[in-house]
């Protein structure tokens, strides 16, 4: 008798499996923690916009999967671009607020600190805005995924495109800290691999720095075809402003930019950047699918999305989809569902999550900044030069140093 | 190096204001960098809201910052006279943090950017070939104007009757008041002029650097070093040292880039070892 009852119960459980899997979420809900810069230099390009993007992903996911998940909620936390703060906040979010996913993480050092905490606490982390290739190389781990971009992809895309378009000699300056040194190394090798040369050895500049006139005067005297700047954010804005002030463009010296965000162009005006070539994972008016999402975002947030914010939406949604496939929010199960997964959304085209190093590879775009007169509408800043297919855009596994 | 003179001009203008305020009022004004930033921000905002170009802003923005100086001195700082100097140091430091965040909020909500573009006037855009170097016209203008302003300020304080009254008011307020001179009025005036000088430096900087809330934070540290090297309170000292440090940092950056930002502090340490009162400062007892 007892055996029959057990059998019936087991059968019922099996039949009800899809509905019952909501109970397999650890606490009946999924919590996404957007660890970002809410007040500092990167707050415009990620910040509140990233939190909004993650919320949109959560809402879209709940609408599409009403049958078998609990509530998805999103919290945004400020890490102030400081590694120690990022580590502490990550631990607090996981331990006290039961966060299941950490996402965004601008500033390489902050991303490295937060992902280390996530590894110890066996929580999935998806780095969207941090750039260092260390995340998928010497510092790679089972719980960390790297989305959207990295220094190799930037240098490879821009160095190759600019050199092939006639930028045969370069003079490069870079900010003297981990990100800048890494980006300079990658850029120099991309230039040399494509037959370009250095007109003078690269110079490290203090970080942060406002006055770049010594380096611009040096560029005038060594006369490279391309003045390469690996500066980011406000330092980049100052370099480009002074590049124009010193009239380098008129003297026939082009501009190659390592890392460019939409917000930098907005800060200085398109004309100051016009003609410069950069590599980006996405831009809002890339095609109809992108425009459609960007329109929704603008309606909800009041501004056009940056690629970092679009990337946060995509990463969050891909994580949630993996939870649905795994029917569990257990990190190891979700990771099994993520590894090797191929997908295509409005942001990540032809994307695959490499199981060996957790690098998310996707098609990336080489773009040139349009002059104001070429723009058809507000925020129309990029002309697409070419697309680098996912398989060629990122560091090949043969060069990869990841031991997971 | 020639381009060092431009940064030197900013150091000189800023440390001149600091020296005037410290020399006369004994206030260590940590807010000076924020006043510089407010000058740049005022020029940007006047342009955006009222459509004012560079030239009107060059006059108006320092006046506005000077006016704010009056409010600050009368409303807050004057209440701390007679207390330890660390009180006004803490107050001005706190005000700096407050101002930076306020300006950031205003820029983000009103102008939708946190770092704003500002162009030099048409006449001064472009470059000139000086023979040995191709140099932006605007930077030459900055050097020239700063030199003139520094010399005029020095002349007024050291050589004129107005300067004599100011020096007397701060040296011995009781006696000066006995001569029927409104001492606290002059003190407020001096603070306002110091603030306006910082504002002027800010307007001049706007076309070279991007206008952003934290632009004064870094500069102020170097400026303090300049004032210490020149001799606390010495006007000539801060002007000469300002330009010299600018040039030195530029040479440093050309020879060995990583040292550029540190050079001024190495110099400060050396000077303090040899002459504790600074290059142009008088020994404590001689005051």
TrEMBL record, chain A:
<feature type="domain" description="Leucine-binding protein">
    <location>
        <begin position="29"/>
        <end position="371"/>
    </location>
</feature>
<dbReference type="InterPro" id="IPR028082">
    <property type="entry name" value="Peripla_BP_I"/>
</dbReference>
<protein>
    <recommendedName>
        <fullName>Leucine-binding protein domain-containing protein</fullName>
    </recommendedName>
</protein>
<dbReference type="Pfam" id="PF13458">
    <property type="entry name" value="Peripla_BP_6"/>
</dbReference>
<dbReference type="InterPro" id="IPR051010">
    <property type="entry name" value="BCAA_transport"/>
</dbReference>
<keyword id="KW-0732">Signal</keyword>
<comment type="similarity">
    <text>Belongs to the leucine-binding protein family.</text>
</comment>
<feature type="signal peptide">
    <location>
        <begin position="1"/>
        <end position="22"/>
    </location>
</feature>
<dbReference type="InterPro" id="IPR028081">
    <property type="entry name" value="Leu-bd"/>
</dbReference>
């Amino acid at each position: 008798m007892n055996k029959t009852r057990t059998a019936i119960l087991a059968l019922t459980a099996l039949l009800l499996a899809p509905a019952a899997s909501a109970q397999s979420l650890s606490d009946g809900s999924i919590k996404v923690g957007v660890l970002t810069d809410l007040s500092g230099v990167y707050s415009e390009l990620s910040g509140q916009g990233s939190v909004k993007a993650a919320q949109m992903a959560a809402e879209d996911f709940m609408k599409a999967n009403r049958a078998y998940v609990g509530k998805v909620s999103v919290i945004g936390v400020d890490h102030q671009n400081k590694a120690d703060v990022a580590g502490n906040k990550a631990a607090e979010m996981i331990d006290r607020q039961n966060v299941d996913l950490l996402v965004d993480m601008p500033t390489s050092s902050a991303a490295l600190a937060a992902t280390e905490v996530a590894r110890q606490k066996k929580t999935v982390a998806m780095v969207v805005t941090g750039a260092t290739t260390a995340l998928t190389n010497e510092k790679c781990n089972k719980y960390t995924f790297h989305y959207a971009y990295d220094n190799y992809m930037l240098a490879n895309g821009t160095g190759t495109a600019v050199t092939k378009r006639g930028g045969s000699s370069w003079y490069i300056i870079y900010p003297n800290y981990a990100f800048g040194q890494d980006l300079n190394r990658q850029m120099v090798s991309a230039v040399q691999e494509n037959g370009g040369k250095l007109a003078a050895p690269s110079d490290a500049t203090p970080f942060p720095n406002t006055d770049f006139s010594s380096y611009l005067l040096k560029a005038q005297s060594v006369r490279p075809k391309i003045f390469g700047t690996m500066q980011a954010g406000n330092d980049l804005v100052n370099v480009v402003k002074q590049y124009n002030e010193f009239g380098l463009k008129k003297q026939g010296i082009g501009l190659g930019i390592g890392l460019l965000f939409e917000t930098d162009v907005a800060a200085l005006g398109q004309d100051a950047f016009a003609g410069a070539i950069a590599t980006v994972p996405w831009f809002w008016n890339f095609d109809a699918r992108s425009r459609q999402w960007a329109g929704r975002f603008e309606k909800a947030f009041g501004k056009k999305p940056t690629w970092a914010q679009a990337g946060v939406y995509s990463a969050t949604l891909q994580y949630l989809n993996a939870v649905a496939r795994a029917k569990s929010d257990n990190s190891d199960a979700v990771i099994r569902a993520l590894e090797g997964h191929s997908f295509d959304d409005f942001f990540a085209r032809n994307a695959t999550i490499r199981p060996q190093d957790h690098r998310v590879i996707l098609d990336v775009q080489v773009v040139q900044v349009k002059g104001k007169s070429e723009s058809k509408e507000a925020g129309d800043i990029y002309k697409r030069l070419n697309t680098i297919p996912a398989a060629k855009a990122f560091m090949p596994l043969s060069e990869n140093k990841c031991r997971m | 190096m020639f381009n060092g003179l431009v940064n030197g001009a900013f150091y000189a203008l800023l440390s001149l204001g600091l020296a005037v305020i410290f020399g006369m009022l004994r206030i260590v004004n940590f807010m000076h960098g924020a006043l510089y930033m407010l000058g740049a921000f005022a020029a940007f905002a006047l342009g955006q809201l009222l459509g004012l170009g560079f030239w009107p802003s060059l006059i108006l923005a320092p006046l506005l910052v000077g006016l704010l100086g009056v409010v600050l001195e009368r409303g807050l700082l004057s209440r701390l006279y007679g207390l330890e100097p660390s009180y006004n140091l803490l107050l001005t430091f706190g005000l700096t943090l407050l101002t930076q965040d306020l300006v950031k909020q205003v820029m983000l909500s009103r102008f939708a950017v946190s770092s704003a573009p500002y162009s030099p006037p048409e006449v001064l855009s472009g470059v000139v070939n000086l023979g040995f170097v191709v140099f932006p016209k605007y930077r030459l203008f900055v050097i020239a104007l700063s030199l003139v302003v520094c010399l005029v300020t020095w002349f007024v304080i050291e050589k004129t009757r107005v300067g004599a009254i100011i020096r007397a008011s701060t040296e011995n307020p009781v006696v000066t008041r006995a001569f029927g001179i409104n001492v606290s009025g002059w003190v407020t005036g001096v603070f306002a002029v110091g603030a306006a000088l910082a504002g002027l430096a800010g307007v001049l900087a706007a076309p070279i650097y991007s206008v952003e809330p934290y632009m004064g934070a870094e500069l102020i540290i170097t400026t303090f070093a300049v004032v210490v090297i020149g001799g606390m309170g010495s006007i000539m000292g801060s002007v000469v040292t300002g330009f010299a440090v600018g040039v030195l940092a530029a040479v440093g950056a050309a020879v060995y880039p990583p040292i550029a930002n540190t050079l001024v502090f190495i110099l400060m340490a050396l000077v303090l070892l040899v002459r504790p009162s600074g290059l142009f400062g008088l020994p404590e007892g001689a005051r």
